[in-house]
Amino acid sequence: MHTGADPAAMNLVTPLEPSTPERRRARRELATVSREAVLTTRWAELELAVASGCSARHTVNEDSYSALDRKAPVYVVADGVGGGAMASWASQELVSRLHAALDRRRVDAASVRHALLDADREVGRSIATHTADSGAATVALCAGTDPSLSQWLIAWVGDCRIYRVHAGPDRPIELLTHDDTYGHLGENPPPGGSPDDPARMIGNGAVAIPNVGRVHLRQDEMLVLCSDGLHKHVDPQKINGQLRAESSLAGRCLRLLELARTRSCSDDATLLVVHRKRSPSRRRLWVASFGGVAALTLVALALHFYTG
Fold this sequence. Notes:
Blueprint lengths: L20 H10 L2 E8 L4 E9 L9 E3 L8 E7 L6 H16 L6 H20 L8 E8 L6 E7 L3 E5 L8 E2 L6 H4 L25 E6 L5 E5 L1 H4 L4 H8 L5 H15 L5 E9 L2 H28 L1
Antiparallel strand pairs: 1-2, 2-11, 3-4, 4-5, 5-6, 6-9, 7-8, 7-10, 10-11
């Protein structure tokens, strides 16, 4: 897991990066992360990849995300509010708290809502012990709920998004979430704010009922969790086309991240992709089971012959 540091040791307000073009470029290259992994069970296989990058304006990446090498099929992307108090720590703490609440228990809609509401209280309380300034994070989460990993819960607060990439080559990408922005919710933003700003965030005490939905993920489909630093600068059709390319999944994610950077250098960006594949172990299990039945049948026939 992309975990955080002691909040007392962190700057309370996100600083701007001082800068020459060379220093900004070097910072972005050092702060770029791209990883991939595979989760295999008796009944399913997930191909996983994440790419995340720090903007030129930040000294640390204010996005956080789940580690991919985990046994529980629970994955999170969180985005600390830019310019807010302890933004990087808030997103890291949110990811950590959600995994602590969900990794070792049966995941259902009620447990996901409870985990998000508990994180809202605790992240806000922790920030308040260090500063009077406000801070919070937005989040997108997905969790597999059945052995075949075809049934998933999704949840989100704020303007992190979740898309589904369908298996068919001609099917468009599907947005599964709606942004909790002032404009979408029909609320007036605060003075100096924008209708496109998130009105619901984890840590600001404004979350009453977290958004939770259910998704059936078919073989060869993908779930894409991303922060606004990605989806605000790369249109859905480009995401769809790039993720269908013939290359490693981590490489595809990295190219989308770099595309977002060419269009904006002011925001951190993260995407995490869950690709459901057919499990080779399931086919091996079927063959082994068939072979076992055949062997038992031969033994029974031999005993019948010798005793008959």
